[in-house]
Amino acid sequence: MGRLALIIIGFTLFLSCYSVERNCEEFHRGTFQFKQIIGNQLQTSTFLRSENLEIEYFNEKIDSARIRWINPCECVLTKLNPISNQDKRPISIKILTTNEDEYVFEYTLVGDQKNKQRGTIVKLSDELITP
Which end of the chain is less enclosed by CB atoms within 10 A, N or C? Predict the structure, then answer.
């Protein structure tokens, strides 16, 4: 019985030491790409992000939002020129994992925790490059 307890304690310590890599500061600025399926088509948007502004290029339209970092891995996007009431609602973004040039994130409208979605963003460049 003592051997089993030692194995369980060792396994528990191993799992508690494992942490997901999150180098979120690497993704505060640059040029990024997001692909998602809308309807039955794969759609791609490109966006430029500075420390406090994000400009998105999607379907020949340009949209801009103020970005406010709550901590290194969480931010809130608020559109600068909302057209509808839906556009007026800020979007909460949380970076879950990062690797060299992409991150997995979770996003939802602020206050709507039951409709969270996930996606992956690829960083194209550290520079702000207009598509």
Answer: N
- Cα separation, 83 vs 113, in Å, equals 23
Amino acid, res. 95: I
Tokens of 4: 């089993």
Distance CA 70, CA 39 (A): 32
Residue type, 118: R
Gap between the Cα atoms of 29 and 67, Å rounded? 11
Token pair, residue 115, equals 């409709």
| Residue pLDDT, tens place only, 12-41 | 545 455 556 689 999 999 999 998 888 898
31 close to 46: Cβ distance less than 8 angstroms: yes
- What are the tens digits of pLDDT across the range 57-112? 999 999 999 999 999 999 999 999 999 988 899 999 999 999 999 999 999 999 88
HSE on the CB side for 12, CA within 13 Å?
Answer: 6
